[in-house]
Amino acid sequence: xxxxxxxxxxxxxxxxxxxxxxxxxxxxxxxxxxxxxxxxxxxxxxxxxxxxxxxxxxxxxxxxxxxxxxxxxxxxxxxxxxxxxxxxxxxxxxxxxxxxxxxxxxxxxxxxxxxxxxxxxxxxxxxxxxxxxxxxxxxxxxxxxxxxxxxxxxxxxxxxxxxxxxxxxxxxxxxxxxxxxxxxxxxxxxxxxxxxxxxxxxxxxxxxxxxxxxxxxxxxxxxxxxxxxxxxxxxxxxxxx
Length: 241
Ligand code: UDP
Fold this sequence. Notes:
Helix content: 40-55%
Largest sheet: 6 strands, parallel
Bound molecules: uridine-5'-diphosphate
Keywords: Cell wall biogenesis/degradation, Glycosyltransferase, Teichoic acid biosynthesis, Transferase
GO molecular function: N-acetylglucosaminyldiphosphoundecaprenol N-acetyl-beta-D-mannosaminyltransferase activity
GO biological process, one term: cell wall organization
Pathway: Cell wall biogenesis; teichoic acid biosynthesis
Function: Catalyzes the conversion of GlcNAc-PP-undecaprenol into ManNAc-GlcNAc-PP-undecaprenol, the first committed lipid intermediate in the de novo synthesis of teichoic acid.
Number of domains: 1
């Protein structure tokens, strides 16, 4: 059983990386779709105002704490989260599992060419997994049925959806009954990282819990979105008092 806690009403699973990986691997053996989300503080804040996003997260099967702010909040509120588990790291573990078990993947997301490049890099690193398909993440609503048909016909075991948050969470939630893969996972910019179009913060930033700061340096236009982090911490401290 996964221990599920709540931060500001948003469910998060108190798993470490090993447990997250074990749950994800077990999902491949299930009959119906299992959903994995990787929220950070920005998403927890967005879910305060966005009922569909909150419903989507509540309905997910594995919700990993991808954000150092969530770990700080858990410590302050004594909620019991174990460690930060990033979506991109879990994606790497899942890809390695797919390689061992010769499972197949479909990547949906990113600008034209990015999913294809990500698949090429993944293929080079994990030669035994199967690339069932890929598609860029810029499409119109009317194209969705065709995309889902393509994903289902590809017989992929797992669908990675990188449409950015909260778009990908809502997209998976809305179409979960039509999707026939074993797993759908929201991976945000993970597709860009696998494609090499976006670089991850150096390990020292990751270790110090400063990946957000690195991202702010690299993508300063995101500062508005990132303001949710201090707002989140203030809310946490007030709720403690
Ligand atoms: N993206 C997409 N379709 C869209 C919007 C975004 O495929 O309609 C992709 C975008 O190209 C990028 C990824 O979603 O590869 C993540 O976007 P962002 O950095 O905004 O999201 P985050 O990583 O914060 O979830």
